Amino acid sequence: DIFERESRVLFISIHRLGKGFFPGTGAADELGSADGRGRTVNVPWQQAGLGDDDYSAAFELVVLPLLEEFEPQLVLVSAGFDAAAGDPQGKMRVTSEGFAQM
């Protein structure tokens, strides 16, 4: 929410969305507002069991093209690991190699 109205910041989030997942926001249609409209990009996963190939595709098809267009001077990464294979909450299948690739 802090950058929702900011045109100078591109915020991209790949995350689980659904009942039981904090904070319960981040739907694909949440795009930012005012000058920041279109600068918030959410890739919400609503199904369990996604793995390296799915996350790699999200990076190749969504994240990297946006970064190339935006040309950021600085990239900050905030990574949770509930997508890790074996995490009982996330129920995803991303391996350590998959995280390294991202």
Automatic annotation (TrEMBL):
Residues 1-102 form the Histone deacetylase domain. GO terms for molecular function: histone deacetylase activity, hydrolytic mechanism. It comes from the Eukaryota. The keyword Repressor applies. It is an enzyme of class 3 (hydrolase). Pfam families: Hist_deacetyl (PF00850). SUPFAM superfamilies: Arginase/deacetylase. Its main location: nucleus. Its EC number is 3.5.1.98. Keywords: Chromatin regulator, Hydrolase, Nucleus, Repressor, Transcription, Transcription regulation. It is found in: Nucleus. GO terms for biological process: epigenetic regulation of gene expression. One of its GO terms (cellular component) is histone deacetylase complex. Belongs to the histone deacetylase family. HD type 2 subfamily. This is histone deacetylase. The lineage of its organism: Eukaryota, Haptista, Haptophyta, Prymnesiophyceae, Coccolithales.
